[in-house]
Known about the structure:
Alpha-Beta Plaits; 2 domains; 6-stranded antiparallel β-sheet; 5-stranded parallel β-sheet
Amino acid sequence: MRSLIVGAGPTGLYTAIALARRGHQVTVIDRDPGPDGGQWPDRKGVMQFRHPHFFRQQVADALQAEMPEVWHGLLAAGAVPAGLHCRRVTFERVLRSAAQAEPGVRLRTGHVDKVRAERGRVAGVRVGGRQVDGELVIDAGGRAGRLTRTLRGPAQGGDCGIAYVSRQYQMRAGAATGPVNMPFGVMVTYPGYVAAVFIHDNRIISALIARASTDRPLAALRTRAAFEAAARAIPALAAWTAPVAVVQPITPVLPGGRLHNSYRGQLNDAGRVALDGLIYAGDAVCTTNPAAGRGVTTSLLQARQLISLLGDHRRDLTSCSLAFDRWCAGHIRPCSRTISTRTRT
């Protein structure tokens, strides 16, 4: 089957490799061209690319089950098992390299303008005014994607009430680590805000401060002077970041957008599949407060289920969409209804 995947993030790349290994000819289309000469400062449209991530055990399980060479590639790149301690940039770089090397997968840079349809079935997409043919289109374009919004029912959910800032640090050779009280590192709740440290690959860490999005004074934490002062004053952060003999910053202070819990299924306003052969996955289905490492986890859980259903339903793609919608409603939708984690002042 000729399959087109819109979005070369974790969902799109994982799905592309898995489908290619099942005989699909897969083209992955993303406006971001990927790393340039080893440098990848930003991912277009992915605000959270440089912010801290923790990959839960379900992510490790998904990689080991489907593509163990990616798992071993991540460990070789400095990631640490226990779930997976790894920066998003490292995770995507290794996964992207595997997709580029996979027979049956083609990565294409461009902006998808429209999904093409003929007689109610997917016929491909239009990329920069040019047609790309396909029998299956998977929209893995993420939370900000607009490609298929008019073909679906409205999203359900709302603002979590949290905004955050973070900064990455490189631990110096021989420096001892700080205290740990969570699988990803350390997290402590204070009146009005939360402070955390995430352990990544290659002895790189992220310090994070989350606040109520309505707390305007704490919005000043996005400035370097305010963030550094806070990191010295908050014990949970100071133990990791204050001693200059322990770490050195390697990024500026990174402001994060407001967090949302949202869910949008496979059906349109009439409760039907809009186009036979058009399926949505990843953040295009569910965005969730990532505090517990659920973002990539829920996306890869979706990817694994979708891959299985495509094998079961073969070319009956409408039935596949309906089955996937039922599964997501039972297993993924609850994450979008998580009680808002508003900090209290």
